[in-house]
Amino acid sequence: xxxxxPRLSGRAMYTDVTVVExxxxxxxxxxxxxxxxxxxxxxxxLMLWLPxxxxxxxxxxxxxxxxxxxxxxxxxxxxxxxxxxxLAVRGPLxxxxxxxxxxxxxxxxxxxxxxxxxxxxxxxxxxxLLGGKTADDILFLxxxxxxxxxxxxTEDGSTGKKGLITExxxxxxxxxxxxxxxxxxxxxxxxxxxxRTKVFVALERYMKCAMGxxxxxxxxxxxxxxxxxxxxxxxxxDMRDFGWRRRAKSGRFEPVSGGVSCF
Amino acid sequence: xPTRLVEIHPPLVNASGIFSYLDVFIRLEREGVCLGGFVTKxxxxxxxxxxxxxxxxxxxxxxxxxxxxxxxxxxxxxxxxEGADLEKPVIVSIFGxxxxxxxxxxxxxxxxxxxxxxxxxxxxxxxxxxxxMGMLAESPDQVGQVVAAVRGATDKPIIAxxxxxxxxxxxxxxxxxxGADYLACSNSLGPGLAIDPGLSCTVLPGGTGGLTGPPLxxxxxxxxxxxxxxLPLPIIAYGGVxxxxxxxxxxxxGASIVGLGTCFARKSTAEVVGLTWDxxxxxxxxxxxxxxxxxxxxxxxx
Lengths: 263, 302
Fold this sequence. Notes:
The structure holds two protein chains of two kinds.
Chain A: E1 15-24, E2 29-34, E3 45-50, E4 54-62, E5 65-69, H1 73-79, E6 86-93, E7 104-109, H2 113-122, E8 126-132, H3 141-145, E9 149-154, E10 161-162, E11 175-179, H4 182-192, E12 198-202, E13 218-219, E14 222-223, H5 224-227, E15 230-232, H6 233-236, E16 245-247, E17 253-255
Parallel strand pairs in A: 7-8, 7-11, 8-9, 9-10, 11-12
Antiparallel strand pairs in A: 1-2, 1-6, 2-5, 3-4, 3-6, 4-5, 12-15, 13-14, 16-17
Chain B: E1 12-14, H1 22-30, E2 38-39, E3 56-58, E4 63-65, H2 74-83, E5 90-94, H3 99-109, E6 115-119, H4 131-136, H5 140-153, E7 158-161, H6 168-177, E8 182-185, E9 189-193, E10 195-196, E11 201-202, E12 208-212, H7 217-230, E13 235-237, H8 244-253, E14 255-260, H9 269-287, H10 292-295
Parallel strand pairs in B: 1-14, 2-5, 5-6, 6-7, 7-8, 8-13, 13-14
Antiparallel strand pairs in B: 3-4, 4-12, 9-12, 10-11
Helix pairs in contact in B: 3-5, 5-6, 7-8, 8-9
């Protein structure tokens, strides 16, 4: 039998939320808390619309909040909103981290610690590895310590071991979840693939429609907004662009480590 | 009138601006998508970032979009085509701000294209840069000039993509006389507007965008039907196909190829592949052993 016609969705796209708290996590990082909680897997994201400024994807760091690092005009505007500000969001969107039974390694760098904070609440007894340039980059430390053992590296040695997070690897575990700068994740994935660890990675790409149509967020043909943002190592093997390049707003390729052109 | 044919099987494609890039097409092909070919997003003469987000709005009954033609630099497109390991043919969609722009793009992209689809009708260009783009579909003379310039630059099939928001019969006639091989109906409808009641403001940049999905279908179906009667050119139908019945409607109205777009919203790669098979299997079941050519235009019973 041929598949029948679907009904129209008839649903509203945006949920309006009110910011109830803007909490400084560090000099450049803030968490915004909303007046509602979202039922979400860690790794899922909201498209957050700030009228007149833009709309960008943010991973949930809390069931009722997101975490913003000031890097450009949008994040600067978002990080400075006051309690009582109304915003429109859509989501939670995308595929988050699956269930990970057994010994789980959580590896976070920079703003990747945001989805990892929520993930730490959703797994049993994680071993948590955090890396940053300086002590200021290590977010949610007390909350991570409340969930499991935490090891830290910083490039300047201002806290934890001096060096890169990859120096703590390999480490034996049943599962590993990676969130952070893509070169760090690509290097960590290589070290972990020597072990029998099932690895999942959360990717970031420039998003436009965030509903799988426009292709702006593609990583080697996977549309990160609907096929991801969390991918398994088995899929990542197929992604030549992982650790190498991403599309900018126009679709132009740029290196994942920043820079101009790359194709 | 002899016509250059766009040979693809099955006669299903993605609409331009959906999936957009060759790497997505390659992924879908590897996963077994049931499309006979792919259509690129519209490639322009120079890099453009397009509009700031939000660029889409789901009305619940169709989508409004206002991407405003983002495109990577042409040199990158050429590199992507050179490296693309793709078996299915690609229809290259192009836009420009003058007839020369279109002809130059065709010269650069000719070897990669099964056919060229001319985007004569994007509704989302910025004020101040509209020059030709904004008015193109409204002026049969200019459409004729663009098609003639492209005709002079390629022997590949030329598809003139029409707007439902203008006098499309005049535009189609001009495109036909200037040497177009196919008509495509239609580009998005509108403009339409979206307001967020909670924030009391409009959603899309500049307020408005083009409407696609189910509300566009009866409009586009009427265009296909009328143009099939009026002109001898084969037609590619776009607009609101959600399921096999919609595709069959377009074939009966006179389309030779049917494009899919908004129906892929929120679908993963595996779900996109599944939907294309559902649609094509439904068409085959409807055909019940007949060839597709037997039903193309068969809905014209007066």
